[in-house]
Amino acid sequence: EVATEVLAREITEIPSIPPDAAETILSLAQLVAAMRGVVSRDRYNGQIAFKPSAEIGTRLAKQLCGLALGIAIYRQEDQITPEILKTLATVARDPAPDRIEEIVKQLFVRRTEENQGLFTTSEISQWSRFPQSTISVLMQDLDMLYIVKRGQQSNWRLNSPCVTSVKLLAS
Fold it and tell me: How many CA atoms lie within 13 A of 46 on its CB side?
């Protein structure tokens, strides 16, 4: 019944995408595309087999815009709302590997002016509850995908564009 009612509605205007919503969607797409990036390693010696690659995020941004518009039409909104953006963030994060999402989350929420967002592999391992050896390899992979940056003394921090994207998503 609900589907029939929604499909029977006459759509006179397509909802608008405010500039701040468009920026959030683009940032979300770029972050998720990077988080889904692949660093292919040889299974026996751990050496990198191919140049690391990540999507640009254009295709994902188009799909997220389409989904946002569909949700807005369904809810009879005249523009993309913050609630719709929250739904998009949930949907978009789903295909990102859980380990990567957890690491990015921990690096973001534990940033302060005092620590300047720099953390050791051991700290990240403790917070994420993954073995230190796993975190070590994942951090190297995230560095090659430009999600994190290695500081001095093997400390790690989120890259500035990632911090900006996560801030937009958190707001």
Answer: 7
Q: Is 154 exposed, middle or buried (0-12, 13-18, 19+ CB in 10 A)?
A: exposed
Amino acid making up residue 105: K
The alpha carbon of residue 3 and the mean position of all alpha carbons in its chain are separated, in whole angstroms, by: 31
The model's pTM is 0.80
Which alpha helices (H) appear in the chain, and where do they start and end? Answer: 2-8, 19-35, 58-74, 82-93, 98-109, 121-128, 132-144, 160-170
Tokens describing residue 23: 């920026």
pLDDT of the chain, 171 residues: tens digit per residue: 777 877 777 778 899 999 999 999 998 898 888 888 888 888 888 888 888 777 778 889 999 999 999 999 989 899 999 999 999 988 888 888 889 999 999 999 999 888 888 999 999 999 999 999 999 999 999 999 999 999 887 799 999 888 888 887 766
Give the bridge partners for 48, in sequence order.
41
Distance of alpha carbon 171 from alpha carbon 162, whole angstroms:
14
